[in-house]
Amino acid sequence: MTPTQTPTTRTPLAGRTATVVGAGFGGLATACYLADAGADVAVLERHERPGGHANRIEDGRFAFDTGPSWYLMPDVFERFFGHFGRAPSDYYDLVQLDPHYRVVWKEGDESDVCDSVDVRPDMRHNRAVFESYEDGAGEALERYLEEAEHTYEVGMERFVYEDRQRLRDFLDVDVLRSARGLTFLGSMQDHVADYFDHPKLRQLLQYTLVFLGGSPYNTPALYNLMSHVDFELGVYYPEGGLYSVVEGLVALAEELGVSVRTDCEVSGLARASDGVTVVTGDGVETRDVVVANANLAHVDRDLLPEGTREYREGYWDDRTYAPSAYMLYLGVEGSVDPLEHHTLLLPEDWEPHFESIFEDPRWPEDPSYYVNVPSVTDDSVAPAGHETVVVLVPVAPGLDDDEGTRGWFRERVLSDLATHTGVDLRDRIVVEQEACVSEFAERYDDPQGTALGLAHTLRQTGPLRPGHRSSALDGLYYTGSFTTPGVGVPMCLISGQHAADAVVADH
């Protein structure tokens, strides 16, 4: 449906009851679709507020988004709210960022002046940036983005919005015809190298792979579509932060009749003659349908009955997980210029950092990392004369992150930031919190403390990724980043629709 269409009046689930376990983006989206289809829906969230990984830290002065901080693919949000006859602007206000982001290359340990570029909404500017590094690169960028746009349009319509969970679903003649010319195999590294020689230009077209939980060396070339997202669809900021989008979804869900209950942990799921039994601290209830937005590994290992497993023993140990993250949430006094709303700091050779995540797990010696300063755009998230700063360093899941290691790494990152941008935060921090592998494992039961879920490797993409229907319990379904279509807020919204569609088809 387009955003201008009115919501459906069909109620195929009228009289049915449904529980959604977990109030992350996937869970809230699923709840909205189920309620729109007529079901009596309750969302159970074990933490003190909805949002899951996409949460908020606030102390009365500073406000921090704890998880996602990039608002990408605005068309997906418009499509989601449009299904219910609403628009994103009914719930939050968007600002298009200019620049979209700044990239700073770290050139040696003691470089006083680092090379940096801004990627902007103005494509003439971006073409000139590429041309300045390599003759002909401006024209090559146009060709690359033309291909990326085609991949995006076909990929979204044929392989994302349509849930193709079986290999045979890809053998449809119309699907094969529309997919002609798409590059499915090969790595992004090799694909980008066909267009550009300069390593910095290659990095500009591949850094978004971190949003998918992968690297240039293990992510299929199909994901060149992210460059269309990045360069041509725009980068936005919802005023108040990404958590305002969570609040928008909660408001929509409640308008549709969904009950959202916090501080309500689900400790078990079991088969019942008339549905699925849900065990919480408040007691036991049976619902016609349960959709788990809690990560699939946790549900499989911890919530399903003894002897009932979704996957074989060792399955979750064999997966390739997206990175975890070392995160600093800092309230800082004074200016942080030249940092932009989004700033990426990259070594000229970033392969060792990716190796430290996927090949030889260890703390990176010369890290690539991301700095988010939303107060550059939004003065409501920091007091006057201060800035809200979030530092995110992708690290390998499963690392030992004891207090001593964290202290050592914190100093390395803040020193690196001071060296390569001139922004020394260490003596100006008035509020500080951090998160790392342990927090993701303990707070969310994420396997190995991954911050994103399953990486988008070739063997974990499309029909090779977990689907939405449970094979362990009739009436149990899955949604969120562990399922199709995958990682990221827009994908979780679409996952919610797929999960709800599966429920409607089965009931």
From TrEMBL:
Pathway: Carotenoid biosynthesis. InterPro entries: Amino_oxidase, Carotenoid/retinoid_OxRdtase, FAD/NAD-bd_sf. Pfam families: Amino_oxidase. GO terms for molecular function: oxidoreductase activity. The keyword Oxidoreductase applies. NCBIfam families: crtI_fam (TIGR02734). This is Phytoene desaturase. The lineage of its organism: Archaea, Methanobacteriati, Methanobacteriota, Stenosarchaea group, Halobacteria.
